[in-house]
From TrEMBL:
PANTHER family cross-referenced by the UniProt entry: DUF1680 DOMAIN PROTEIN (AFU_ORTHOLOGUE AFUA_1G08910) (PTHR43465)
Name of the protein in its database record: Glycoside hydrolase family 127 protein
Gene3D superfamilies attached to this UniProt entry: 1.50.10.20
Single GO biological process annotation from the record: carbohydrate metabolic process
Record domain Non-reducing end beta-L-arabinofuranosidase-like GH127 C-terminal: where: 540-652
Pfam family membership, one: Glyco_hydro127M
Domain (Non-reducing end beta-L-arabinofuranosidase-like GH127 middle) ranges: 439-537
Non-reducing end beta-L-arabinofuranosidase-like GH127 catalytic domain segment(s): 15-429
Length: 657
């Protein structure tokens, strides 16, 4: 196929070293706390957490223990995501003890693999003989995809082939089973994941068979006669879950029509963004223009009509899904952590096709807000659901809020989110830069050092220093083997109204150099050259689209990439009684008592007085008095780290003349 889409390359993780006052804490937390804690959880050593049995399942399948399968049908994926995070950590810094633990579970996984390459503990232990009979509901290809991603990450980090050979054998088995050729199964997964994993396997092996197989799974999806119905009939009408709605509702898994014809964000939010990630990655690798255009349509619908200000997606509990355009409730929202991680995957792949800042802006929004909120500051507690408004008494009394937790949980029976957070943060270095020809794109502002190989065997080392997201001052220092002509493309975020760039102290004209949201700074660079970027970071009052009824008459505060919220710990109860005057002066101050120092926003607001209301539930013609109170907004990602209490992102606004 003639390549009509150019690919922008990401950097290998071992070529990026993060040394950042903000992000290094979280990366070290993943290494020192999160990964060890999750290993204990996978081994059922956390006393007050739901049991996992994920490691035990593999040991039983490997013949090392006796017992029965326990857990969700997709339990294997938790181990795979843990192993993937370990691979990324080992790419950053070798750790003999961690590598030894990983090698141990890899040995067990290899023993659990069947002779023909098949690997899945649920079907090996619980339903032998029924493999590949319920792809719609039972996550076989989803688990396969996560194991493939883990193997690629671990091989790239250590050079050890054992787990890579396991997944190659498994992928070859999948290729033997699925396809359009006579005798093969013309099926596809219910939960997309194998598509993007196979492309990663292709990248590391250069075997185009895996790229073609990924393309098959994407292009076969949604075609008629419908595969889900055929396999349902072949099973005699049986289903894995309590009822067959997952099979009947084709939009739930985006199988209602071929992917190239889809134009709306529908169904299960995680499945949607994983599918789109595969589509965009396939477009980047093959130049498939039709797949690229479909990816772009789906992206535009998602971000313009179905995304929360925090970068969350999936507005309803039922199906963990999108509902309809502009339906974005704040209190019953789902906004699964995994879904925002998927948004970041999707954005990164779109940047590989088209380096346009709109993708990096959303990637940043999801990263700094929903994804970080999904993990407690201690690294041992997690949110599955990420609401924008919480009233704890209702969470325990109203079943409409059963999915909303006002405090983070230690673990989950369905534990997809914690290891997903770990693998993303451990691989954060891959999201900062991309390279196309002799242009280096900076998408995220994170202190550290990156090494680039340019045309003509030239080497560039780019050092970035910043106190982002608290400050908009970013400095780049260049080191090159020889004087080199190249372009540095610096993202100007959508929230920034004024940006200044200076080169070796000389102020530049920015507006004339911006292309697709990036300031294109071209020059002949030599070692020691410095580029300073200053992004203005005022407090911005954000408003929702007029068709979003849930934000009507409300305002949210944002500074830089961070969305802010009110918490009961700072502002007392009944946050819904607060009115923020439209002309209220807002100040940014550092709170040294908040997790070692965070920038918070303070100001004056009005709070309705209800003490004299009385017992009547309703009253006619009552003017409710209000009083002036001081308010404090903290970064949304930091909420729920100080005990149980109310939280609110969108605040009632009081218009002033």
């Amino acid at each position: 196929m003639e390549k009509t889409v150019l690919q922008t390359k990401t950097l290998p993780l071992n070529k990026v070293k993060i040394n950042d006052p903000f992000w290094s804490y979280y990366i070290n937390l993943v290494r020192d706390v999160v990964v060890p804690y999750q290993w204990d959880a996978l081994n059922d050593r956390i006393a007050d957490a739901e049991p996992s049995s994920a490691i035990k399942n593999f040991k039983i399948a490997a013949g090392e223990e006796k017992g029965e399968f326990h857990g969700m049908v997709f339990q294997d994926s938790d181990v795979a995501k843990w192993l993937e995070a370990v691979g990324y950590l080992l790419s950053i810094e070798r750790d003999e003890e961690l590598e030894k633990i990983a090698d141990g579970i890899i040995d067990i996984i290899a023993k659990a693999q069947r002779e023909d390459g098949y690997l899945n503990t649920y079907y090996t232990l619980k339903e032998p003989g029924k493999r590949w009979t319920n792809l719609c509901e039972c996550h076989e290809l989803y688990c396969a995809g996560h194991m493939i991603e883990a193997a690629v990450a671990y091989y790239q980090a250590t050079g050890k082939r054992k787990i890579l050979d396991v997944v190659i054998k498994f992928a070859d088995h999948i290729d033997d089973v699925f396809g359009t050729e006579p005798g093969k199964l013309r099926g596809y997964d219910g939960h997309q994941e194998i598509e993007l994993a196979l492309i990663k396997l292709y990248e590391v092996t250069s075997n185009e068979k895996y790229l073609r197989l990924s393309q098959y799974f994407l292009e076969e999806r949604g075609r008629k006669p419908h595969f889900y119905e055929e396999e349902f009939q072949n099973r005699g009408g049986t289903h894995h879950w309590p009822d067959s709605w997952m099979i009947r509702n084709k939009e739930y898994s985006q199988a209602h029509k071929p992917v190239s014809e889809q134009d709306k964000a529908v169904g299960h939010a995680v499945r949607f963004v994983y599918m789109c990630t595969g589509m965009a990655h396939l477009a980047a690798e093959t130049g498939n223009r039709e797949m690229y255009e479909a990816s772009k349509r789906l992206w535009n619908n998602m971000v313009s009509k179905n995304m929360y200000i925090t970068g969350g997606i999936g507005s309803q509990r039922h199906g963990e899904a999108f509902s309809t355009d502009y339906d974005l409730p704040n209190d019953t929202v789902y906004a699964e952590t995994c879904a925002s991680i998927g948004v970041i995957f999707f954005a990164q792949r779109m940047l590989q096709v088209e380096p346009n800042s709109q993708y990096a802006d959303v990637m940043e929004r999801a990263l700094y807000n929903t994804v970080l909120a999904g993990m407690g500051h201690d690294g041992k507690s997690f949110f599955y659901v990420n609401p924008l408004e919480v009233y704890p008494p209702a969470c325990g009394a109203n079943q409409n809020y059963d999915h909303v937790k006002p405090t983070r949980q230690r673990w989950f029976g369905c534990a997809c989110c914690p290891p997903n957070v770990a693998r993303l943060l451990a691989s954060l270095g891959q999201y900062i830069y991309t390279v196309r020809d002799n242009t280096v794109y900076t998408h995220l502002y994170i202190s550290g050092q990156a090494e680039f190989e340019l045309d003509g065997n030239r080497r560039l080392i780019l050092e970035q220093e910043t106190n982002y997201p608290w400050s908009g001052n970013i400095q780049f220092t260049i080191k090159v083997d020889q004087e080199s002509e190249l372009t540095l493309a610096l993202r100007i975020p959508d929230w920034c109204e004024n940006a200044e760039i200076s080169i070796n102290g000389e102020l530049q004209s920015v507006s004339e150099q911006i292309i697709d949201g990036y300031a294109m700074i071209k020059g002949n660079w030599k070692t020691g050259d410095q580029i300073n970027l200053v992004l203005s970071m005022p407090v911005v009052r954000m408003k929702g689209h007029p068709l979003v009824r849930h934000t009507a008459g409300k305002v949210a505060l944002q500074r830089g990439p961070l969305v802010y919220c009110l918490e009961e710990a700072d502002n007392g109860p009944n946050l819904h009684q607060l009115l923020l005057p439209s002309n209220s002066r807002l100040e940014v101050v550092e709170d040294e008592n908040l997790f070692g120092g965070m920038k918070v926003i303070t100001g004056e607001a009005n709070k309705r007085k209800t003490e004299t209301w009385g017992e009547a539930l309703y009253k006619p013609n009552v003017k409710v008095e209000s009083e002036s109170v001081s308010v404090k907004f903290i970064p949304y990602f930091a909420w729920a780290n100080r005990g149980l209490g109310e939280m609110q992102v969108w605040v009632n606004e009081k218009e002033t003349l």
